[in-house]
């Protein structure tokens, strides 16, 4: 830390422990200066020789002791003591912690060059410009002390000088950084490996781009806002570095923001969150989506205002594909019966869809095509995130079906190449809401495209007692269609003869279980059954009628749709799980979906009979 000593006379100020300071001298004190509750017993001549204000306060005639009250001097008694010692020529030490107070007090006492050459104001200004403002850490310390001396520090442009000093140093090329700084952070991802050894010799340690971030976290929010604004205005620092700086500052001042527990605070915390939101760089990716969601969670809980909330939601929507499901689980505010604020997430997803559509129109030259265009990679990713979020909030028994449905349909089915995630979310909702009406069940399940379910999901769905019967039948039909298509392709590629030979050698089936990438709680699969003798006989008969169609009557696991449906209907009838009206309503496939009869299928039927 830089410092400056003024004066040469020994310090003879003495205190009696009762906020009284007396100058030890042979001369009797002839002036008493009261600063708040502190009394200074001084002499007129030293004060009059340096301070124009005392020249106006002290009468030129009369030898009586004068008592002067000063209530508004910046820096208070300590700052006045520095000025008084300078008047006596005593040794005074100035440093980054007291120089602003001394400068403001000297201005108040009018200790300028018109009174005496080389006065205190001049000496302090030289010290600031030649020493303090050239030091990185001293500039930050001085800036932190200016708040206690407003508006004097601002009127004297001390604040602006401090801000410019700090911002200029933060914006300088890292190769020119020669001063010490605090750095206990991990380097930015783009800088990893910069200091790796080369030819067995370790290169000189490079200064990281974000070297200045930690030292600024000691500033209060007002000073920090001014510094970041100045750094932005200079335009020399990358936006992601500025974003990282704001993130580090936020976690330093609000450590509970990074924890799972709810953040608490008062009006001061709310004002800080609003300021931080306004400081965020506008460029996409300058801060992580996870950090933005944490800010949104805090502003939502503390009710920081609709404008701040909407700004964060807009920023989050621009990079929603980076979010995780856990970050989206934002608790509701007081008065709501649901655990998580699904309306908030719905608004964010809707904003994302709007922005994605605009980007697609720009990519197509502003034209809107009539046909359904392929979804963007971001849209596909967001669809997966939304399905994962739905699976989590579905566990809340108080989530109404219309909210669940609205969020699920916000992302189009075209954006889901595979509907396993959506199936898992719907199944979880049906599990946690057993009293859901038949019409609501059908409406929810209509969101799924059975043709986009994976084989594992299909195997689970056909045994899922919670699904409407119509959906189960559709899954069976599409699984049969998929198996038939696969068999036809194999027959065409390897020839009918070799296909019949391979079919005759098949004696067992594999076991399939619905676990998938996204495991469903309490969902288990029974192992698939082996082909019974009826199937074997049917296979032999099918060989005589053309082996290329032998697989048409089978679904994954070797069970035909009719058999699976018969077993399912039988078990459901015995358990009484479905009403007769539901079964008769939903067990019928649309006429256009009935598979064509084939010789193999009719032969199998006769053999089974």
From TrEMBL:
Any single biological process term in GO: protein ubiquitination
Gene3D superfamilies: Potassium Channel Kv1.1, Chain A
One Pfam family matching this protein: BTB
SUPFAM superfamilies: POZ domain
Alphabetically ordered keywords of this record: Ubl conjugation pathway
Residues of the BTB domain: 29-96
Composition bias, Basic and acidic residues: 533-545
Residue ranges of the region described as Disordered: 533-609
Domain annotation NPH3: ranges: 210-482
UniProt pathway annotation: Protein modification; protein ubiquitination
Biased composition (Polar residues): 600-609
Family of this protein: Belongs to the NPH3 family.
Protein's name according to its UniProt entry: NPH3 domain-containing protein
Organism: Panicum hallii var. hallii
């Amino acid at each position: 830390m830089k410092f400056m000593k003024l004066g040469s006379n020994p310090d003879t100020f003495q205190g009696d422990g009762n906020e009284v300071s007396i100058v030890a001298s042979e001369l009797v004190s002839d002036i008493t200066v009261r600063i708040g509750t502190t009394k200074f017993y001084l002499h007129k001549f030293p004060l009059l020789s340096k301070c124009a204000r005392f020249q106006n306060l002290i009468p030129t005639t009369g030898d009586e002791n004068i008592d002067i009250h000063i209530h508004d001097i910046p820096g208070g008694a300590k700052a006045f003591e520095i000025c008084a010692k300078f008047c006596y020529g005593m040794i005074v030490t100035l440093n980054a912690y007291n120089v602003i107070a001394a400068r403001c007090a000297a201005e108040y006492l009018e200790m300028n060059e018109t009174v005496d050459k080389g006065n205190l104001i001049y000496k302090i200004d030289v010290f600031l410009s030649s020493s303090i403002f050239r030091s990185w850490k001293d500039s930050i310390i001085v800036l932190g002390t200016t708040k206690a001396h407003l508006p004097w520090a601002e009127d004297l442009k001390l604040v602006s000088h401090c801000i410019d000093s700090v911002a200029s140093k933060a914006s300088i090329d890292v190769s020119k950084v020669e001063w010490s700084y605090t750095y206990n952070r991990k380097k930015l991802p783009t800088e990893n490996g910069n200091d790796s050894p080369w030819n067995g010799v370790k290169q000189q340690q490079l200064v990281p781009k974000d070297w200045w971030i930690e030292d600024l976290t000691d500033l209060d929010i007002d000073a920090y806002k001014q510094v970041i604004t100045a750094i932005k205005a200079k335009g020399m620092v990358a936006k992601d570095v500025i974003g990282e700086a704001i993130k580090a500052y936020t976690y330093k001042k609000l450590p509970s923001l990074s924890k799972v527990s709810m953040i608490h605070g008062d009006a001061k915390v709310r004002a800080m969150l609003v300021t931080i939101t306004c400081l965020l760089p506008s460029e996409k990716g300058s801060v992580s989506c996870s950090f933005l969601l944490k800010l949104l969670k805090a502003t939502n809980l503390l009710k920081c205002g609709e404008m701040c909330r909407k700004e964060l939601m807009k920023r989050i929507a621009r990079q929603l594909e980076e979010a995780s499901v856990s970050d989206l689980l934002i608790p509701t505010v007081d008065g709501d019966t649901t655990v998580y604020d699904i309306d908030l997430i719905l608004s964010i997803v809707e904003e994302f869809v709007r922005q994605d559509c605009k980007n697609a129109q720009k990519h197509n030259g502003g034209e809107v095509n009539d046909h359904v265009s392929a979804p963007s990679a971001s849209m596909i990713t967001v669809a997966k995130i939304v399905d994962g979020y739905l699976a989590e909030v579905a566990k809340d028994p108080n989530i109404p079906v219309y909210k669940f449905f609205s969020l699920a349909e916000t992302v189009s089915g075209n954006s889901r190449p595979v509907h396993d995630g959506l199936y898992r979310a719907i199944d979880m909702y049906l599990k946690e809401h057993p009293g859901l009406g038949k019409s609501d069940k059908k409406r929810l399940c209509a969101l799924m495209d059975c043709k986009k379910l994976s084989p594992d999901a299909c195997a689970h769905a056909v045994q899922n007692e919670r699904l409407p019967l119509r959906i189960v039948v559709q899954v069976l039909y599409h699984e049969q269609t998929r198996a038939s298509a696969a068999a036809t392709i194999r027959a065409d590629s390897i020839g009918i003869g070799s296909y019949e030979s391979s079919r005759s050698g098949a004696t067992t089936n594999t076991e399939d279980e619905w676990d998938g990438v996204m495991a469903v709680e309490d969902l288990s699969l029974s192992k698939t059954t082996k082909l019974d003798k009826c199937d074997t006989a049917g296979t032999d008969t099918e060989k005589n009628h053309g082996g290329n169609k032998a697989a048409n009557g089978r679904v994954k696991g070797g069970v035909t749709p009719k058999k699976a449906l018969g077993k399912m209907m039988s078990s459901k009838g015995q358990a009484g799980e479905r009403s007769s009206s539901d079964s008769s309503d939903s067990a019928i496939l649309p006429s256009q979906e009935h598979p064509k009869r084939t010789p193999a299928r009719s032969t199998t039927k006769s053999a089974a009979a």
